[in-house]
Each structure stands twice: as C-alpha cells, then as structure tokens.
C-alpha cells in the first residue's frame, strides 16, 4: 500500500477482532497439540497487541468526539481482558483446564469487541473527519509494532507516556521470552495494510 491511500481506523480495529474470532475457531477445531499451542500463542499475542495499541492511540481521541467516559470504560474492560489473557499465557498449555482459561480470555475480548463494533465504531465513523480517521488508523497500526506482544496487566493503562515507556520495555522483554521459550505462532487470516 502506498502512503497516499486513506485508512479507516474502524476497519483496522474490526480486522483485529475478526482475527481473534477466527483464531479461536481454528483453536477449537484443531486436534494437533503443536498447532493448537501455536494458535494459543497467536491468540495471546493478538489480544495483547490489540488492547495496548487501542489504548495508546484510538482511546486518546475519544474525548474529542464525546466518548471520554467510554474510553475510561474501555480501559477498564481491557484491564480485565489483560488479566484473563495473562492467566492463559501463564497457565501451562496442556493442563486439563487450559481450554477453559483461554476461552474466558477470548470471551471477554469478544464481548468487548462486540460492544465496540455495535456502539462505538459507528460513532467514530460518523464523527471523525477522513483525515483524522486516517491519522488515527496509521497511529494504531504503528502502535501495533511497538507495544508488547504479551499481556502486562499491572503496567500503566493510561494510554499516555507511562504506558508507552513501560510498553517499550515490555516489548523487549516479550521478544526475549518468546525466543528463549521457542514459541511458535500461526499466520492470521486478515492482515493490516503496510505503509
């Protein structure tokens, strides 16, 4: 994609939601343990990245369009999702209740995603200018490359500089952990544009 094409932040957010849903369907239908574990790793990564990327970009603009209280509510929901994703990430894959632990995280994520899609994304589409929509979409996509790839529920959740600074350290930590533990991942079905 060239830098001249305008992006829609609501489409980029929905793409993440759809990836999590599709990954979980794959997870539930897969019987091969190695593939299932790689899908679980990818689910954890995608939910963690999505949550932090929204917090440090999209939610910061909610107040300007009359959704300041919604941003606070969303961050509270994200905190719960992160706690549940963290529980799945730290739980031993293959333990008898692992599927239930992961399902709780995905269900919390999906409940929040439906709320965004039904109540918030239409407002964003309506109230953002084309230029602001594109700017926020690009910031969101850039943030996806800089935020941690694993959940850190006790890190700052403010969307501000503290979360960005801790997130940069967390991203480095996560890369080391993923390398040392030889984590495998699967491809996601839907990909974001590059610029």
Automatic annotation (TrEMBL):
It comes from Daedalea quercina L-15889. PANTHER family: HHE DOMAIN PROTEIN (AFU_ORTHOLOGUE AFUA_4G00730). It holds the Pfam family Hemerythrin. It comes from the Eukaryota. This is Hemerythrin-like domain-containing protein. Residues 10-123 form the Hemerythrin-like domain. InterPro entries: Hemerythrin-like (IPR012312).
């Amino acid at each position: 994609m060239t830098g001249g094409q305008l992006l829609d932040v609501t489409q980029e957010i929905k793409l993440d939601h759809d990836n999590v849903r599709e990954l979980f369907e794959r997870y539930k239908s897969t019987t091969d343990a190695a593939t299932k574990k790689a899908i679980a790793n990818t689910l954890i990564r995608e939910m963690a990245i999505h949550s932090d990327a929204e917090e440090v970009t999209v939610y910061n603009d909610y107040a300007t369009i009359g959704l300041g209280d919604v941003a606070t509510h969303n961050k509270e929901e994200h905190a719960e999702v992160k706690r549940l994703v963290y529980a799945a990430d730290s739980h031993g894959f293959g333990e008898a209740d692992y599927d239930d632990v992961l399902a709780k995280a995905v269900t919390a994520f999906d409940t929040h995603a439906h709320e965004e899609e039904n109540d918030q994304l239409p407002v964003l589409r309506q109230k953002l200018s084309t230029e602001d929509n594109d700017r926020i979409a690009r910031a969101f996509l850039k943030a996806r490359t800089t935020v941690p790839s694993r959940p850190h529920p006790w890190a700052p959740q403010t969307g501000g500089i503290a979360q960005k600074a801790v997130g940069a350290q967390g991203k480095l930590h996560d890369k080391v952990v993923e390398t040392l533990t030889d984590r495998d991942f699967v491809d996601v079905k839907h990909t974001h544009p590059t610029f």
